[in-house]
Design goal:
By secondary structure, this protein is an alpha/beta fold. The protein is built from three helices and seven strands, in the order βααββββαββ. It has helices spanning 7-36, 45-70, 122-127; strands at residues 4-5, 72-73, 88-93, 98-105, 116-118, 135-139, 145-154. Helix 1 (7-36) packs antiparallel against helix 2 (45-70). The chain starts with a strand and ends in a 13-residue tail after the last strand.
């Protein structure tokens, strides 16, 4: 299995791996050793916290390395008048009777609360490749379905302003 990511996604993950390995890991190891010196480990809260933080860092490193090694690098290019990755859209949600602004992004950068919609989500899949004025049917499940109308498309590009998700 692989994740479709852009070259910028992979670059950002490699940068985070480098930071975590070269800067954070030595600091966290030193924190564990310092806390261990406080005495009885069974009642040493500082040691337990330092160890947990070190383990979280190691887990994140493994996660990022796995993502980089299994990634399929894709292009963010799309037609001038069709919805593509990183495009900003204004859509009219017919069921809610309101306009919404969203941006289609890779799964790693998705944050629905901020209007960053994954290309793998039902909404993202329904919108990709469509044009302004198109009426799009979104099927989340058999019970949850709705229609959206694409009001406008503002072409975007894969810049480094969007952070990658924590997990």
């Amino acid at each position: 299995m692989y994740d479709e990511l852009t070259a910028v996604d992979v670059k950002k993950m490699r940068e985070e791996i480098d930071y975590r390995v070269q800067v954070l890991r030595p600091k966290l190891i030193a924190d564990v050793q310092t806390a261990r010196a406080f005495g009885d480990l069974s009642e040493n809260f500082e040691y337990k916290c330092a160890k947990q933080e070190k383990n979280r860092n190691e887990s994140r490193i493994r996660y990022l390395q796995r993502m980089v090694s299994t990634a399929k690098v894709i292009s963010a290019d799309s037609g001038d008048d069709t919805v593509g990755l990183f495009d900003k859209l204004v859509v009219f949600h017919e069921k809610l009777n309101r306009e919404m602004t969203m941006r289609i992004v890779t799964t790693l950068r998705a944050d629905a609360g901020k209007g960053l919609i994954s290309k793998e989500s039902p909404v993202g899949k329904a919108l990709l490749g469509r044009k302004a004025g198109d009426r799009v049917h979104v099927k989340v499940s058999e019970d949850v379905q709705y229609d959206m109308v694409i009001r406008s498309i503002e072409k975007g590009e894969d810049d480094e302003s969007l952070a990658i998700r924590r997990y």
